[in-house]
Specification:
19 helices, 567 residues, single chain, three-stranded mixed β-sheet, two-stranded antiparallel sheet, mainly alpha
Amino acid sequence: MQSGPFVSWISALVAWIVVGALLYGIGSLVARWLGPARDESAGPIVRFWLGWSATLGLLQLWHFALPIDGRVYLLLASLGACGLFLHRAALLDGLRRAVTTPHGAFGLGAVAFVTACAAALALRRPCNPDSCLYHINTIRWFEQHPIVPGLGNVHFRLAFNHSYYLYASLFDVGPLRGHGEHLPNGLLLLGILGPACLLLPRIVDLRRREPNSSYLTVAVAGVLADFLLGCNLSSPTADVAVATSDAALILLAIGPVIDGEQLTPFRLRSIGVIAIAALIAKPTTLIVAGPFLLYAAAEVWRRDRGRETWGRTVGTLAIAAVALVVPWLVRGAVLSGFPLWPSELVDVGLPWRIRAGLGHRELLYERAFARFRADADFTTDYSWVRHWLSLEWRENREFLLPAATLLVAGSVAAVLAFRQRRGLAMARAALPAAAALVVWWLLAPDPRFAIPLIWCAASLAALFMLELTPWKEEVAGRAARTLLALALVAGAFTEPWRISLSFARSFEAPGPEQFQVGRLGSGESVHVFRGCCLDPPCVVFEDPANIYLRRPGDFSSGFCAGAGCSR
């Protein structure tokens, strides 16, 4: 992309505005289908994340026939424009309030400022080491070809069935082709940071009481601000999708409870759809999605048991599960021969399947990596805990500060509740957070899979403590909540990173590429990974002579391992 000063920055902004508007419009259509009550509004978090969820489902189906290229925008633009048109009255009303009230204008200005800075930061080089290994290569396979059978034979990590990369491929089109990897995570972060910026002027206005969910939203967004300043903003890693969708699910599931309100059937349906989509985006989202979805279902069941709305909710979620999960399982089978790869529990006997045993070895590696162990054979005992703690206790933002806050604030809240002999209805919100922490510890105790969750637990403990504290003046309680939320935002800027904003730079390349030229067993020339390989076809960790095209000369036909497998 040849560009002058500011062109790349403006291109990033335009891409986020266009794709964000389409996702919001599609989410508005899905929200209408989910059926909110007549007096119930679906906020921006609900609409954006419902649109993202539905788009993942559409892209899965599209990719069975066509690559994720510019043509997919014909479909997305039609649906997005329809949703925006049907929701136009509420959009215009919100825009009118934003430009005519001080709070609205300040919030809109905060959104614009954060978006502009994020676009400048997204121009930096993708520096996650896995971006050169398979992130960018996956996006370019999806952008250049329909789904390729046996793609995991070329590089087993290309068989990771993360639908996030279908979404990421949306940005690698038109003038952004070759640079689209810089942009997908920025839009997901803005899906949380944007609504938090709109709430910011309201929580700093101490003259009026704000619901606890507003403070929690700003606090969780403050934690996600770390990603704007770190390596993964411009690197297309699905871990950011895990963190942001986790944050959305947490806020939607417990927000009404900590405000003393009831969780509605529409809210449950929205949580269910987003949770299912987050699961297919990257399955580690199950750590948070499972407990919080079950908690939301229990809250609605406790109030609406036996009503006709419950039947509609179950039916709606069943449709969403079939529409999202069934194509995802088929994609897994096409990419690797195993619907749940790297698990090899289900082998459908396809001729292009990855060789047996490789998936099991990868699962052992992932399990060991999450526990910071070099030897995967010893992860069944808990001798690794000492090593894990020796590394993590120094990570202030990831572990030490939230753990200390949880311990101190939780203890004080328990003492206050005991002394006042007072129950706290909002304390129910701690149940899914506690359950998710247990699941995280048992399955994959890597902090990158639980940063919003860990800070959510700490923030809830602090909110419980503040709720039970007998303030002489009500404004003091509001000020304490505001300081809590702003402290988490400020914490993103206290690490020893050099924050450098340049709006005039161009997209920085992830390379330099490091590969050598080799040949497949069927004779085609390919790149062989030697440190960084971005464009397909690129063979990693395998001898290319053992890999064959199913139809010679046609890279879309798929790959298989071993002589004679293509017949």
